Amino acid sequence: MDGKTLEWLAAVTKAAGGSSAALLAAAARAREAPGSCTVVLVEGMSDQAAVQTLAARRRRDLPGENIFVVPMGGATNIAHFLGLFGPNGFGVRLAGLCDEAEEHDIRRGLERAGLGTGSFDLAGLGFFVCVTDLEDELIRALGVSTVERLVAEQGELTPFQTFSKQPAHRGEPRERQLHRFLGTRSGRKIRYGHLLAGALDLTQVPGPLAGLLAWV
């Protein structure tokens, strides 16, 4: 595999505000022992934080199992990541998580990589779709009161209340206000990806997350 491709993908990930650590670790393992690892492709670092946190709560050691959760910096980059890790690259076992709005990009990328044709079942390939996105899934699973409690515990209840009273957000459902608030500051979505997954009742895990962890 061309080292320049890996360097370029690492740069893309960083440009999108992510870390390339998981990408580089996965590539190193795939080079060292082809076919020995699984790469879970997710859109961003908040998704990575949620998946890793929930796995740890289920007593899973993903790195110890050679499972790498790799943020792509957006679903539109999937073709490049599949080129690196898919059948024409390292050929590792693949899985993934995506937002509903990006399902088309995921399907197209998988088809171009030779991993699906026609109207194929994404879950059958280990790729699971979140309604809206993962934060929305987590907020609905936890409920508004629990998420507001977490916001308060982070010392952010007053900023959230100020945000929710702004004219652009005043008439929105509380779930929508919380969802928008989590994305209003750099790093906040990542932190809450960890916190929301950490607060889940393990018997009430959202379907896409449950399906992904069962797959890997």
Please give a structural write-up.
- This protein folds into two domains: 3-132 and 206-215, Rossmann fold; 134-199, no CATH class.
- Helix 3 (45-57) links the parallel strand 1 (38-42) and strand 2.
- The mean pLDDT is 93.
- It is globular, with a radius of gyration of 18 Å.
- It is of the alpha/beta class and 216 residues long.
- It has a four-stranded parallel β-sheet with strand order 2-1-3-4, sandwiched between helices.
- The protein has eleven helices and four strands.
Strand order of the largest sheet: 2-1-3-4
Number of DSSP helical runs = 11
Elements, N to C (H/E): HHEHEHEHEHHHHHH
Mind telling me the CATH class of the largest domain?
Alpha Beta
Largest sheet: 4 strands, parallel
The CATH architecture category of the largest domain equals 3-Layer(aba) Sandwich
What characteristic shape results from the CA principal axes? Answer: globular
Strands, total number: 4
Report Rg: 18 Å
- Assess the beta-strand content as a share of residues: 5-15%
Counting helices, strands and paired strands, the structural category is alpha/beta
Integer count of domains: 2
Low-confidence stretches: none
Alpha-carbon distance between the two ends: 24 Å
In the CATH hierarchy, the third-tier topology of the largest domain is known as Rossmann fold
Helix content percent band: 40-55%
Mean pLDDT: 93
Descriptive terms for the model:
alpha/beta; 4-stranded parallel β-sheet; globular; 216 residues; 11 helices; Rossmann fold
Summarize the structure.
With 216 residues, this protein is an alpha/beta fold. The protein has helices at residues 3-15, 21-32, 45-57, 78-85, 103-112, 134-142, 144-153, 157-164, 174-182, 188-199, 207-215, and strands at 38-42, 67-71, 93-99, 127-130.
